[in-house]
Amino acid sequence: MNSPNWKKCTEEELWKFVGFYLAEAGVESVLVGGAVVAIYSKGAFKSGDLDFVTQSGTQEKVREVLEALGFKKTSRHYEHPECQHLFIEFPIGPLSIGDDYKIKPNEVNVEGKTIKIFSPTDCVRDRLASYIHFNARECLDQAVLVAQNKPVNLKKIEEWCKSERATEAFDEFKTKLKMR
């Protein structure tokens, strides 16, 4: 797989590039967080970082793959010297949204390798989780942005909000979604 244009690559281009090489090395990972919003909103939102939750492989294997691609570990994230606008992090798993650990990510084929990403519905739930638990209002707006650009399962989102004891968050999400 060819390297992206480091100086202006998008979150989606960097995800596919890094995800491909992680998969090739046997590291199963799922893209989560704001980069998913950037991808599903077709760039209307810019995240600045990519969060991968690994489901197999060791941190040493991850480091080996990323260093081979030119990344350097700085504190808790990886930076590429030619890519000043994006960096990569590996938050500690397991993959979950609130108390839901039964996440089935979408699979995308990239040059014969399967890489994974939160589904649009799970991306919305993830953004609402940040809104609910950390009062991050910008995450509510991100959830709305995804739902405007991709089909989502509103029933599943509503049920999840009920399980998180946050029906008011779902009501606010739905109201904002209708306003736009």
Summarize the structure.
By secondary structure, the protein is of the alpha/beta class. It has helices spanning 11-24, 34-40, 59-68, 120-134, 137-149, 154-163, 167-179; strands spanning 29-32, 49-54, 72-74, 77-80, 83-89, 106-110, 113-117. It is 46% helix and 19% strand.
Structure, described:
Helix 5 (137-149) crosses helix 7 and helix 6 (154-163) packs antiparallel against helix 7. A seven-stranded mixed beta sheet has the order 3-4-5-2-1-7-6. Helices cover 46% and strands 19% of the residues. The longest helix is centred in the last third of the chain and has 15 residues, at 120-134. The mean pLDDT is 96. It has helices at residues 11-24, 34-40, 59-68, 120-134, 137-149, 154-163, 167-179; strands spanning 29-32, 49-54, 72-74, 77-80, 83-89, 106-110, 113-117. By secondary structure, it is α/β, with parallel strands linked by helices. The protein folds into two domains: 11-117, Beta Polymerase, domain 2 (2-Layer Sandwich); 120-179.
Total individual domains: 2
If strands are numbered along the chain, what order do they take across the biggest sheet? 3-4-5-2-1-7-6
- Care to count the β-strands? 7
Tally of helical runs: 7
Dominant shape: globular
The biggest sheet amounts to: 7 strands, mixed
Structural class: alpha/beta
How much of the sequence lies in strands comes to 15-25%
CATH fold-type name of the largest domain: Beta Polymerase, domain 2
Q: Which CATH class of the largest domain applies here?
A: Alpha Beta
At CATH level 2, the architecture of the largest domain is: 2-Layer Sandwich
Q: What is the terminal separation in angstroms?
A: 39 Å
In terms of per-residue confidence, which ranges show pLDDT below 50 for 5 or more consecutive residues? Answer: none
Q: What average pLDDT do the residues reach? A: 96
